């Protein structure tokens, strides 16, 4: 069927169901628009079918985004380790000179 070479098996099944539902909804709306008498029942059915079409398309797009964001990576994750060396200690403690103006003993 349509686009059967793209994606995984579960997305192929989803795509088939979505395309068939969209074709069915469009066929019903077209039939009601061409052959249906203009009464409130058929207007309500057509409106509901159009809302269903929008919901199917929105759910499909949201489902693709959700599936891509929550997908577990198939490859192993590489962990990088950084070794930090401590700063070297000063060679000998230095006694600082007192500031000028201080009494020296």
Automatic annotation (TrEMBL):
The chain crosses the membrane at residues 17-38, 44-66. Residues 83-105 are annotated as: Disordered. It comes from the Bacteria. Keywords: Membrane, Transmembrane, Transmembrane helix. Residues 87-105 have a biased composition (Pro residues). This is Uncharacterized protein. It comes from Aminobacter niigataensis. The lineage of its organism: Bacteria, Pseudomonadati, Pseudomonadota, Alphaproteobacteria, Hyphomicrobiales.
């Amino acid at each position: 069927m349509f686009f059967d070479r793209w994606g995984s098996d579960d997305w192929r099944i989803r795509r088939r169901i979505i395309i068939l539902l969209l074709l069915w909804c469009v066929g019903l709306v077209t039939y009601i628009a061409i052959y249906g008498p203009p009464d409130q029942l058929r207007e309500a059915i057509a409106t509901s079918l159009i809302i269903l079409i929008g919901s199917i398309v929105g759910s499909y797009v949201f489902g693709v985004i959700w599936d891509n964001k929550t997908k577990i990576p198939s490859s192993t994750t590489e962990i990088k380790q950084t070794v930090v060396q401590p700063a070297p200690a000063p060679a000998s403690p230095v006694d600082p000179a007192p500031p000028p103006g201080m009494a020296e003993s």
